[in-house]
């Protein structure tokens, strides 16, 4: 009798609401919990994202979420959320997971599983719209497996054997599950290409090698420090497929959030160029405008909100200059928060999303500064749209404690996946505790993707307007590394 493996397919679920906001959950249950936690005027309706509707392994439809349970909904219903699946995993009968490292269709995934197993495989899933399928191995693959003496007919626990054959950590010699290369468009490959060795080893312009090259007209290769700096520049300058947003957080005031926001924007502007926006999204009154170069106007995000309908299309792009503040040689723009007195209505979540949707047409990158309340709707809206989170921490006891409180809040609100892609920027005060710095970095290990320590800088200590030329070389280099970490996460 031909053996059959029964496997279950799971995935991360990204929810896309009507504003285009994307929130990723680790499972279907977690995604349903996120939807249930939001307020809705009627029963929310879900549908598949377009990329899945065109795949024959899916059955497009509409589902209504009622009391935590999904039920069929009329196809005429307008979807409140689109479901997008990524990071597929196969679960065997013993409950063991195998990651599916492929960008191909589910049909090719199932076929490859059956072919590698050498026998029929059934794959089912509880994900809405994913069709159960039975796959038969390609005949030539079966013959090859039998010739090599690797048939599965005598296996006592066939499903477990199939899983153990592919789970990477079981045996380093075993092949990774379904590792397939999916063709990338030539345009994307060119836009995201890395620096060639010739560019990396172009004649030195810095250090003693650069001095000699300039004085004597030689072409000495750059030293290790300059090559590293060039590599960081290449990372920061790499092409990105569409708008990206980084959001800087710490519910403690005075934790260097605003400084980090400004200097990430300045580094991006000077190294990458293009349209870069630093946006003060404080739920009360932020001070990004105080640290920035002034403009010929005093308009804030509230003033822009009153005219946001004018910017739903690019035709009024020239009028944005009346609402943002250009930052000279730093080559980015600042959007100030509400007025200092805070006597106007605070921008709420829907207003933030509306503005973000409009502004992303004009800016390729945005760095969003946030306030000090993780429960504020505008704070949560910013986290929703973030491609990369930046945890700003000052090496002070209270700021460090509140930073980890912020991390706990993010995890509790369903943003654990964004935390694993986060970058922590730890700023050293005038008198810094080396032991506490070690404790901070040790605790961050495994919580975030990268940690960068910024040295103390007298030019930033008084909280006044930030002058790039006054910064120390060490501070600029640290922010160069931090900015590269942020771009890597995008």
TrEMBL record:
It comes from the Bacteria. This is MinD/ParA family protein. It comes from Citricoccus parietis. InterPro entries: P-loop_NTPase (IPR027417), ParA/MinD_ATPase (IPR050625).
